[in-house]
Design brief:
six-stranded mixed β-sheet; alpha/beta; globular; about 350 residues
Length: about 350
């Protein structure tokens, strides 16, 4: 993506929570930009600080230190009235949908416009328009209890779009949905991003969500920004342990080094290289056999990507022959550092 105007700019943002016995640094000196019109992922394990961070984007949480700039305005300097106005430009959807069960689908979508004193006729027209956008125009008179989880999330998205926001914040919005429905919701968000040029910020602990639709990603670990970049770059060349664990958690889950004392490498290949039988060609060309401990393939930005953990031969000359062969083929890889018995 070409360089674009930043709709969000975080400058050294920190959030402290005071407990009975200590101070918890939930977000620790985080700085990055979110560009207008992109789908930006914020990912981390549970407790990493990502949800606290996103709540500071609309000042539901006050930053202890640092600045959150939205559309050129420092949120920390705004009065309550100014903040209420600017929040209309930031919609939010959650894992739990947060629909009012005693109101119809149409009434739920109209609700933010009602609160903003939009004329009733305009409320209804806009709500029906947004329901059409999310494919639920035939459910306007239904009750939330009559809908599936995926349909409820679509209603929540329609409601979020009702005030024509500049940004849609999604906090674990697909975590409670099954894989098929998750795919549908992510496809819908991608379509909305492209048609409306709406900036979307996705907070998740699942790399698969980021891979499917995000342009860039920030990885949060222990409240700190561990890594940030284009999704393809972070996926193919993770620079930190936090990124590597999120991208291929199977490395640790399988306790691979419980079964080998040999050197291992992690190979990452893009759509072009993924179609080539790298390991088969390696064996045929060099006569050296290697053991594939695990492998994984995914689609990132519509392009196939894959990675595998390979156990090198015990003989050092043979191991180096494998490494040189892979280098010559231009395939990205790195040798896995041994830390105790874990990768």
């Amino acid at each position: 993506m070409s360089e674009q105007t930043a709709i969000f700019r975080l400058n050294h943002v920190t959030k402290l929570f005071q407990t009975k016995n200590s101070t918890v640094r939930a977000v620790d000196d985080v700085s990055f930009d979110i560009r207008q019109g992109e789908i930006f992922g914020i990912i981390g394990m549970s407790g990493a600080g990502k949800s606290t961070l996103v709540r500071m984007l609309n000042r539901l949480e006050e930053a202890t230190d640092g600045e959150v700039i939205f559309d050129g305005k420092n949120l920390g300097n705004l009065s309550n009235k100014q903040l209420r106005t600017i929040r209309m430009s930031m919609a939010m959807i959650f894992q739990s949908f947060n629909l009012l069960m005693q109101k119809t689908v149409l009434a739920n979508v109209m609700l933010p416009m009602k609160i903003a004193h939009v004329p009733h006729k305009e409320q209804k027209e806009r709500a029906l328009q947004m329901l059409k956008v999310v494919g639920l125009e035939d459910k306007a008179s239904a009750w939330p209890a009559q809908l599936s989880g995926g349909q409820r999330q679509r209603v929540a998205i329609a409601r979020a779009l009702a005030m024509n926001p500049k940004v849609l914040l999604c906090d674990e919005a697909t975590s409670s949905l099954d894989p098929k429905i998750t795919e549908e919701i992510l496809a819908l968000l991608k379509d909305i991003n492209q048609k409306l040029n709406l900036t979307i910020v996705i907070i998740t602990h699942e790399m698969s969500v980021v891979e499917k639709i995000c342009d860039r990603v920030a990885i949060i670990s222990d409240g700190k920004l561990a890594e940030i970049g284009e999704v393809k770059e972070v996926f193919t060349s993770p620079k930190t342990e936090a990124a590597r664990h999120l991208i291929l958690p199977v490395e640790k889950e399988l306790n691979l080094f419980d079964t080998t004392d040999r050197r291992c490498i992690r190979i990452v290949f893009d759509g072009r290289a993924a179609s080539d039988p790298l390991i088969a060609n390696l064996v045929a060309d060099t006569g050296v056999k290697v053991n594939i401990l695990c492998a994984d393939t995914k689609t990132v930005g519509g392009v196939g990507f894959g990675q595998m953990i390979v156990e090198l031969p015990k003989d050092e000359d043979a191991a180096n022959l494998v490494i040189n062969y892979i280098k010559e083929k231009g395939v990205n890889f790195h040798e896995i550092e041994r830390k105790g018995d874990k990768i």
